[in-house]
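[stage:ingest] chain + small molecule (zinc ion)
[stage:ingest] validated
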Amino acid sequence: MLVVPGLHLVDGMEKGVVNAYVWERPDGGLTLIDAGMPKDAAKILAFVQRLGLNRLDRIIVTHGDVDHVGGLAEVQAATAARVICHAVEKEVVEGRKPREMGRSPMARVYGPLVNAVSRTVLGYRPLAQVHELVLDKTFLAPEGFQVVHVPGHSPGQIALFEPKRGILIVGDALNNRDDRLGEPPRIATPLPDVARASIRKLAQLPNVQVIVFGHGVPITENAAQRLSAFAGSLPQ
Ligand SMILES: [Zn+2]
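[stage:predict] done
[stage:export] C-alpha cells:
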C-alpha cells in the first residue's frame, strides 16, 4: 500500500500484527524499515520484488524486538543490504543481549519467555552483524532521514523524520491501533516515563504531515495536531 509517494507499507504481513515500510530513495535505491516477524521475510521479499529486489540495499531497524527484526537475517541474506540501527540497540539486534522487559514481577517472567519463544516457536534467527550505527540527530543522507532517538520502549529505539515533506516513521514509540494513538504496551516498556518523554520529543518536530507506525494505521491528515494533542494528554 502506498501511504504517500515514495513510502510503501508492505502488504500482507503476518496477521497484520506489525508493519514494515519500503522507502524509495532519491538515488533510485530502496530502504526497508523494519523486517516484521520471522515468517514475514518471504512476504517482504515478494513485495520488494515488484519494485525491484536488486534496488533494496539498505535496511533501517527501529528497534530490536522480534516483531521488527524477525525477518531481518533472511531479507539481508537475500539482498546483501546494509543494516543500520542505533548504537545502543546493536547487541539486541545481533541476538547477543536479551531484550530487557523491565523490573516488574510480570516483566521478569515475560522477558525470558519472549526471548525463548522467539527462537523456539517462532524460529527467530538474529542477524549476525549490523553494518552501520546511528545516534540521535544522525542525518541519513541517502534517505534524507533525520534520526530521532526515542528510548523507553527499548533503549536504542529510533524514529525517522524526513523534514522536507514532514514524514515521520515512529517504530513503537507510539502506536495507532484502531486509529487511536496509544503508548507502547506497558509490559514491554521498561521505562514508561522515558517513553512518554520520547513521545513529547516527537511532538516537538516541526511540520509533521504524515505519521506511520509499527502497529496501526498511517495518519495522513491533521498529523501534527493529533500528535501534539496526544503528547499533551500524557501524565507528566
Ligand atoms: Zn512492535
